[in-house]
Structures are given as C-alpha cells and as structure tokens.
Amino acid sequence: MAICTTWTSGVPKTCPGYGGTSRIWLATRSSVSVISPTVSTDATGIITSITMGATPSFFYEFVPLKDSAFIDQNETKDPSKGTGPVWEQVVTIPLGKNETSTRNAIKLLAKDDDVLCLELNNNGTYWLYGEVRGLSMNSGGTKGGTLINDRNGWDVVLTGLELNPAREVQVTNLAALINV
Questions:
Q1: Cβ contact 129:141 at 8 Å
Q2: CA 17 to each of CA 14, 93, 98, 147, 171: distance values in angstroms, whole numbers, following the listed order
Q3: Are 129 and 167 in contact (CB under 8 A)?
Q4: Tens digit of pLDDT for each residue in 17-64?
Q5: pTM, full prediction
Q6: Cross-strand pairs, 142
Q7: Residue 100 CA: distances (Å) to CA of 23, 51, 56, 105, 111
C-alpha cells in the first residue's frame, strides 16, 4: 500500500468551543479575483488576503434566523475507485418572512452554480466555503407553516464538493469586502 501522507503533528486539547453560525455572506466566485495564499501553496490553512474584481463586487449578507443557520462539512472517499478524500460542504440558511426582496435574491442565487460562502461562527472565526469549486443552491424553498406563529420564510441550502476542507479567513480588509 502506498503511503501518500506523512503526519507531522497531532491535535492538542483546546478550550471548549461554541457551535453554530453567527453571520453568513455570499458572493459569486467570479467577483473575487484573488484568494491568497492559494490552496496549492498554503502551508497554514489560513487565508490572509481576498481581492474582489475590478467592478464593484461584494459579499452580501444573508441574515438567518437566530440560532438556525449551520454548516456541515463531511469527508468522503471511495477506495474501490481509487479516489482521494472529497469534502462535501453544505450551508443551510433559514430566512424569516417570505417577501418580494427575499424571493428576488433567492431567484438570482438559485441560478448561480459558483457561490462562495463566508461564515462567522460563534467562536468569532471566519471560514470560506466553496473556495475552489463553488457552491450551488440544489435545494430549498418556502415554508409557510399552518399556525399563526409558524415560520413563514425560506430555507436556502447550498452544497458543493471541494478537494480540501474549508479554510479559516484572517484578512485585514474584511469590512471593504462586505456590503452592509
């Protein structure tokens, strides 16, 4: 059996972390011109620079209902095919109140098969999903409920396959990348 990797360290015990997603921003991958270091040259796992394209481009915030959005990232491989690990990334964003502006934004999002997701988790750490191959909205829709106090909103589910797990983002120009 071929040895394809060499381990250089383990994982030390750390302080407890918090689950959940605090905020989510989305952008088309074509609006981003440079993410550095690139996945192929990255030694730390941390993105230190994101440069948007020449035209005014931003990450746009999609505000989920409190304590409802989440991101799953699962490794999968098929030894019978000889393929290495692939990381499935799933971003779930429950949005409140079905209204025209939300409908219009989701209609455009559903047509884009090349989306980046910037997440701020409840530990105060930013992560980038869909970095190389992009995410697409493969499912989602409205939820109307039956009772007066049921949610009347949207569920947006973006999925994608990446060759590497999502990387942490530590950029100094984050405010310039986000349209608020």
A1: no
A2: 8, 21, 33, 36, 22
A3: no
A4: 788 899 999 999 888 888 887 776 767 889 988 888 867 678 999 989
A5: 0.86
A6: 154
A7: 22, 31, 24, 9, 17
By three-state DSSP, how is residue 106 classified? Answer: helix
Helix (H) or strand (E) holding 107: helix 100-111
Of the candidates 72, 59, 90, which has an alpha carbon nearest to the alpha carbon of residue 158? 90
Closest CA to 31 of 93, 108, 102: 108
Give the start-to-end residue ranges of the domains of the chain: 21-179
Contact 178, 58 (CB under 8 A): yes
Q: How does pLDDT run across 60-115, given as a tens digit for each residue?
A: 999 898 899 999 999 988 888 888 789 999 999 999 888 999 999 999 999 999 99
Strands across the sheet containing 115-121: 46-47, 167-169, 126-129, 115-121, 21-28, 59-61, 178-179
**Distance in angstroms (rounded) separating the CA atoms of residues 140 and 64:** 14
| Rounded-to-integer distance, Cα 149 and Cα 28, Å | 35
Interatomic CA distance for residues 80 and 59, integer angstroms: 40
Q: How many residues does the chain have?
A: 180
Please identify which residue in the block is written with the tokens 């915030």.
Answer: 61
